TrEMBL record:
Signal peptide: none
Protein name: DUF1349 domain-containing protein
Domain of life: Bacteria
Upper taxonomic lineage: Bacteria, Bacillati, Actinomycetota, Actinomycetes, Kitasatosporales
InterPro entries: ConA-like_dom_sf, DUF1349, UCP022704
């Protein structure tokens, strides 16, 4: 199913399980179902990826910044709302507001064959602003408690310039251990260009 959001200059398409995506009055809403996630464990010999999770993704052109305030109806550990970037089946990354495991936390997962897992800082309440930026092969993650001052979270690559330039970007919901949760995304903002300084709060 294709979805058009007035804030974004590119269409979005659904991937994975049905996320019951809807958009009204500037608010995008998605649902994660029971035991839905995307994570490829880096430990042990059993390296099967998680089943999958609802995603709503599109293909922006050139350098960009995509941000949203993410609000999660937490019910279980690791429930999360996510900004997501996808280059290949085993090359993707998540910027999450996650219940990790008993306090809302900004965390990131970068998957290059297998996933890593990194917690950044905790959040009071169930909302935080998240932002993905891209230039060439580089991707940056930022988060903000107020939507004004941004904290640098991570800088990484997922592929070469051509692969990352063709990346799919958008939204994901997850509930790895729970019976599901609802996530809303509002204050959606898309801007061309890369931040002038990743670490100055802008």
């Amino acid at each position: 199913m294709d979805v058009e959001l007035p804030e974004l200059p590119f269409p979005l398409r659904t991937y994975g399980p049905d996320g019951h995506w809807s958009y009204e009055d500037g608010v995008l809403t998605g649902w994660a179902g029971s035991r839905q996630d995307r994570f490829v464990t880096p430990t042990g010999e059993a390296l099967d990826p998680a089943s999958d999770a609802p995603r709503l993704l599109g293909a922006p052109e050139g350098d960009f910044r995509l941000s949203a305030r993410v609000t999660v109806g937490f019910n279980a550990p690791f429930d999360a709302g996510v900004l997501y970037v996808h280059v290949g089946e085993r090359a993707w990354a998540k910027l999450c507001l996650e219940y990790s495991p008993d306090v809302p936390t900004v965390c990131t997962v970068v998957t290059r064959g297998h996933s890593d897992d990194c917690n950044s800082f905790t959040v009071d309440g169930s909302s935080v602003w998240l932002r993905i930026s891209r230039t060439g092969r580089a991707v940056a993650f930022h988060a903000s408690r107020d939507g004004e001052r941004w904290t640098f979270v991570r800088l990484f690559t997922l592929g070469d310039d051509e692969e990352t330039g063709a990346a799919l970007v958008g939204f994901m919901t997850q509930s790895p251990l729970g019976e599901g949760c609802v996530v809303t995304y509002d204050h959606l903002t898309y801007r061309p260009g890369w931040p002038d300084d990743l670490r100055d709060g802008s």
